[in-house]
Amino acid sequence: PNIRGKVFVISCTNRPDLIDAALKRSGRTDERVPLTMPELATREALFSVMIARYNYQTNITDFLPFAKQAENLSGADIEVIVRRADKIAAKDGKKHIDHISLETAIDNFIPSASQRHNAMMTLYALRETSDKRWLPGNWREIVQGAQSTLHDQQASTPEREEILMMIGNEIPEA
User: What is the pLDDT of residues 18-33, one digit of tens each?
Assistant: First the structure.
């Protein structure tokens, strides 16, 4: 039977460079679409969306300053920040998320992946894209930002590095 074109396999990886070249040949993986970190406008909208998703109350009307602080963070990271901001506000006896609680949540947030690692994954994703039409309109700026992060000595926050050094690489078994 002729089933060509009727089977869709969708897979996802953050390291397309490690996928066997045979799997990336035409006819096996026809489309490779990069999913990059959200841009400024998207991050700004994500704060509003996450607050609405959880029915949180807020007196914040402009999320742009927070979106700027959340550069290189994922939508999931922003979701965690918003949830923590609500807990911080409640702990402080507030009935809504205010500037202080959101600022505190952002300041205390430690990303699970280093900014250097995110930059590397972004460059791999863009390099492995199968068609120009899948590249984001601002792909050149994304590449410049990622390359800058890779060359920047402060690619990871000093606080995060200090915490990781104190904890160590290995955790003994119980």
Answer: 888 888 888 788 888 9
